[in-house]
Target: Anaphase-promoting complex subunit 4 WD40 domain-containing protein
Amino acid sequence: MVSQDWRQNSDWFFTSKKAGMKVGSWLPTCLTSDDSAIPFPRSPSHSGNRGSTTSSSNSLSDTSYGSLHTNSSLQTLPSVPSLQYLFPETLGFSVSHVTVTSIKPRPEHPITCIAVQGNFLYAASINEVNVYDRQTSTLLDVFNSQGSSSGSVKSIAFWDGKIFTAHQDCKIRVWQMTMAKKHKFLTALPTVNDRLRRFILPKNYVNERRHVKRLWIEHADAVTGLAINKCLIYSVSWDKTLKIWRASDMRCLQSIKAHDDAINAVTVSGDATVYTGSADRRIRVWAKRTGEKQYSLIATLEKHKSAVNALALNADGSELFSGACDRSILVWEREDSSNYMAVTGALRGHGKAILCLTNVSDLLMSGSTDQTVRIWQRGVEGKYWCLAVLEGHQKPVKSLTAVKDEEESDVIWISSGSLDGEIRTWKVWLSKPSSPSSSPTDILKWTL
Model:
């Protein structure tokens, strides 16, 4: 598990110095016996203009089904059955064309988080958030650029025209886009009003450490994840807590000691069931029981053998995907009679830790320390195949977004942010094979 000392001294990958930023230590649990340390950039030079955009093309020869037989990750979690098709003739979809666009906001700084809202792509490079037009890759705005003391932005979420950013300095900041497409700071959570409402009463304080107390509405360590469902905001932190906020007045409603170690991920389903993933190797499920107003623990999901880094749900919330340092993606399915999730199997193929997951329709995208993005397609009987392996990043893939094209139903736009300082946007065409006689080579051909 991640040690307390590491969490206090590392911002996932960075530590600050007077002259700027440098790369710090990697998760100890994400290194396995056959993995070497990740080669982070030491002092890279400024290789391009700020916000520059380039287009690149490269040929991908790694077919997913071929790598399944030799990849060392097949040995991870041997007690969990594989859900993958191993033979190309079972493919139901093909990836016919991919176009890659590259954006480098600050080439010397890693991308810590990306998110999509409408026609805007939000990309955090350390503490700065860069906003691009998704169609043209034009840089529209940069905000929080003066807030270097806030630390890196670790998560971005949206609600009712507002933008919420989670920061290393334990705060959640709220922004709003103006008519000129500039972003105006509104407030930080917890708000001043919320603090004033509670600071007088001793019962509102909790012990942070010996002789140090804080309000229970405050996070005590980096806020690592945000999720929003209807009018509620859910935040998780390395301080091991899950906090629930009311979006309308930004008031903290509840704080839960959710895990025994740092919490790395949170996601929420349409019925307001909340899932948290932690360095304690557990996923916990939270919901409001019948007749109750506050969240309580419903189930604890234990199968991963190392820190859980990423969570994603399918569209109806019946399937949960979890990615961890053990290099496997576990698939959990909800039982009909309860909120409990049971593991059905694992998706294997990545050679190193899973850092991010996102789901669109019946497609799952995963990003890894092995510098690749994989696209997974659900088939019959709960089986999956790996449609494609997207290559090109030079460092671990830290964040992913995926959006279906509004005009072309068979097109998915995937954006990936990496520690190499690059955001790659992939336009992926998905189609069924034209005939049963289509050869596997034709099905998996790439044109970039």
